Amino acid sequence: MRKLVHIIAFFALLLGCIGLKSGIVAAEGKAQIVDLIGKNTLLMNDGTMWSMFYGTDSIQMTGNIASISGNEVDGIGTTRSGDLVSWVLGELKIIEGQTGVKQVAYPYWLKTDGTVVSTNPRMDKLQGIAWIASDQDKSFAYLKQNGELKVKSYNLETTLGIISDVSSIKAMEVHLGRVAVLFNSGAVVIYSDSNFDDKGRIVPSKITEDAVDIALTPDAGDLLIARKDGSVWTTGHSNGQFKLDNQLPGLDQVIQLALVKSIDQFYAKKNDGSWESYSAGDLTPFDAPIVKSLSLTTSDVNPLVGDTVHIGISATYSNNGKINVPASVDNVTVDKPNLLKLLPNGAFKVIGVGQTQVTATTGGVSKSVTISSSSRSNLKYAKKVKDVVFVQVKPIVQALGGTVATKDGGVDIVVGNTKLTLKAGSLNALLNGENKVLKSAPLADKTDIYMPASILTDVFGAKVLWNDKLKQADISFGTAHMTIVSAETAALVKKAGQGTLIKYIGKSYWINYYQQWDRFSKVTVTDIQPDNSGSFTVIFKSAAGKKVSSESMTAFNVTELFEDGASLLKYDPYKKYAWSTATWKLVKAEEVAIGMNKDQVTMSWGVPYNKSVLSSNGKTIEIWYYTSEETVGFVNGIVKYTIT
């Protein structure tokens, strides 16, 4: 029943907009159509609306919207709190500073203080207004608070009459110089600038007393009336334009008219909330968009405990709209909540090891994804006794996202919906309140109870493998896994990781050029520690007993460190070379002086990148070239000059 005006310059005139969300479903459940101003532009009862994006794609927008006025691609509306909103090409925005909006009739809006605002810069601001109506760009009608009814058509303003009780108005429609008013009582009155008496006074014409909705067609200004009995009628032409003379066939239980293009083409809402499209006597059900399918995307299907996982939910609707649905407790379930916890922001926190199924449901359609979460680090402790693998109860139950309570020499275990009671030395257990005989009895320990790993298989569905080489238990749930080490595992892993590098442990070296450590000081290798990345750190002890460490390096680099002679020396240089204190001072300071020999220069500056040798008159002249462009000249092995 709304008459709409398409103003191209609308958004150029409205500055300072605050954005609302687009493409987000606001609430779960089947939404109903409240109003429509285009076949694909719908207002829903949950405050969302559908519109068109570039005229081809349907998009859903949220904003707690209460009313709309516009067309398929742009328009204005009000929120339930009275803010003015606008949309264009699927982007919904709150118009800054426009609050207290009572009614919209695109491109006009009426505020609760009685002022009328428009995107038309040529229009003077109206005040003291109670009701407005517009007819695209042809006419604009307004009812003043003093009861005066006026219409502007093609820049001509006409007073049509007086309505004594402006609060009795339910709806108002305009077409050119004709205004139809629906009163709360059901009465419909037409005020027309072409219907006047002999004295030129406009004569109001009452059409009916039992209407629930009205609409004036934009083509000819014909009046459609939905009556209280659910039927729809139209007025006639010429002398019959002020009386109902035609009931439209097939329509019943109608309570609302919308998107009226002519008396032969419009939409009708029935008293059960359903809609029909009426076209020259043919009725077609017009349904609200419903979810046809869901798709899920995950940031990581194989996360580690402690990680945050994001699951994207996308719903495809019957109108081909694709909507992103935020995860919430209302639309997402986790079959093992001891593994994943839904956070307030819609992400999931991984809190346990195992496999769980996350199911999203919206619009009655469901889709699931499996998340396999593994332990970030190894657990302690496991052991093998007489071919039976045992694991410490508390750490593994906590890793599964469960809890453990000590009770009467035993433990009460809760993991998700599973409750298990064990007692050290007893084959009898309680599983979810029923007796269960174990394959092996749990073992008592000073700080905890060890349970047979077969419980993980029989009760929790895990696969358990004992790694005899590393003395550890490998537990898996599909692709989810964790490792429970024994007291021997660390030493075995270290030994396996060290491999041939173990031969360097216990040996002593003297620093040459390494990490700016004191040159020619003695260090002894006390350990070579592998890490999870396959790298190693060499641990040294200085002559003074201080512990120093290398940087992390590969096995190849460790071997090179000990063997290349550039970083570490395998001998005590002070014992190998009986040089004077003054010479050692120069060498240690990496200085070269006249009179030094080749060994001293090599010890001071290292090996040159190039050499040249010339013999003449019983003398051997040798020049050493260094990468720093420093040059040393020898005569018969003794430095005679340096160039720096």
Automatic annotation (TrEMBL):
This is Copper amine oxidase N-terminal domain-containing protein. PROSITE patterns: PROKAR_LIPOPROTEIN. Residues 386-472 form the Copper amine oxidase-like N-terminal domain. SUPFAM superfamilies: Copper amine oxidase, domain N. The lineage of its organism: Bacteria, Bacillati, Bacillota, Bacilli, Bacillales. InterPro entries: Cu_amine_oxidase-like_N, Mao_N_sf. Pfam families: Cu_amine_oxidN1. It comes from the Bacteria.
